[in-house]
Amino acid sequence: MLRYFTAGESHGETLVAFLSGLPAGLAVDQAFMDRELWRRQQGFGRGGRMKIEKDSAHIVSGVRHGKTIGSPIAILLENKDWKNWQEILPVEEGDPAKHKRVASPRPGHADLAGALKYDLPEARYVLERASARESAARVAMGAITKLFLRELGIEVLSHVVAVGKATLAHADVAWERLQQLHAQDEVLLNCADPETEARMKAEVDHALRTGDSVGGVFEVVAHGVPPGLGTYAQWDERLDGMLAMAVMSLQAVKAVEIGTGVESALSFGSGVHDEIGYAAEKAGESFTRFTRKSNHAGGIEGGISNGQDILVRGYLKPISTLRRPLGSVDFETREPVKAAYERSDVCVVPAAGVAAEAMVALTLAKCALEKFGGDSIGETLRNFEGYKHQLQQF
């Protein structure tokens, strides 16, 4: 079973990611991992923190001579800003006078709920762990699972569908176009259509000028996924449920959609269910001779992948930290004040898409390992080839 978790705070010394359960013999590409981390830091509307941190994954266990060895993988991501915070947030007792309080909770953030839950006098420690900085550790783990999925012919990419009121009219983007976006050395808003991207940029510019923030929608596409991942047998083993939980767990994501789920809910069944056909010969990359005219289901039916591209959308609320703060209450005096301000972004939709790619990759890798098993990558691939043969004979 694939297991993973993260540790670390936004301004702590380091982020730590743990990944256990990958088979031995998987080649780990350091340059690919670091580029995935770079992609997370890109996008128009990012804040000053991105000018400080230049993330690089430092693997300290589980990989030797460039390949996994079957034992747990531990990854460190240094926080370069730590030098400015080590006296403010020391591990030891330190000097309480140097502590930097978050005096008033920010609406929309974990500040107040976290302080109430953990009985903390203010929100500094809440902010430190609830921060989206943690998602960098997820991207590092996701990069390794992407390399695993590639061995099975599966790739995971994302693009931005909406920023504020600027929305991509035709969101059915060809896989080749997503590959082009992924290969870019400069990332604006990661939208497949330049004209729409210009309108998205205008939305971010408006938020910048007014001291506000803006959210949006990203779509993650998993290409080359075979039918049969996930199951309807138990509620918590359904692939769509697992993906929804994985993507919803990302900071600021408030809704998740599979395929055209929202539109389908407002339509008649005859217009949204993907008709099935059968071809005399297997076409292209398809796993079987069964065909579909559309993909409203987003590649998942009954909690099981059906062989089409898996489509997962995340709906991202605007960042909670505003340069023009909303009303709040002082933790100590209980008097009305403006919410605390911490250095922040204006728009993070493209970066959230990259983090969501990681969560989708981790989920698909977990399901693939549960289905195909294998203590070495060779064993996993033999099992996978046997399953593909079974599909072709069906």
User: Reading side by side through the largest sheet, how are the strands ordered?
Assistant: 8-7-9-15-10
Going by CATH, what is the homologous superfamily? Answer: Chorismate synthase AroC
**Uncertain residue segments:** none
What is the domain tally?
1
What does the overall shape look like?
globular
Helix content percent band: 25-40%
What is the level 1 CATH name? Alpha Beta
Number of strands: 17
Biggest sheet features = 5 strands, antiparallel
How big is the Rg?
A: 22 Å
Number of helical elements: 11
Fraction in beta strands: 15-25%
Describe the model.
It is a single chain. The chain is α+β, with helices and mostly antiparallel strands and 394 residues long. It has one domain: 4-Layer Sandwich (Chorismate synthase, AroC fold). It contains eleven helices and 17 strands. The strands form six sheets. The protein has a five-stranded antiparallel beta sheet with strand order 8-7-9-15-10. A four-stranded antiparallel beta sheet has the order 1-2-6-3, with helices on one face. A hairpin with a 2-residue loop joins strand 13 and strand 14.
List the main descriptive attributes of the protein structure presented here.
394 residues; alpha+beta; 4-stranded antiparallel beta sheet; 17 strands
In short:
The chain is an alpha+beta fold and 394 residues long. 33% of the residues lie in helices and 19% in strands. It has helices spanning 30-40, 49-52, 111-118, 124-130, 135-151, 175-183, 194-210, 239-248, 261-265, 349-372, 377-393, and strands spanning 3-7, 14-20, 58-61, 63-64, 67-68, 73-78, 155-163, 166-167, 216-223, 253-258, 276-278, 290-292, 300-301, 304-305, 310-316, 327-329, 336-338.
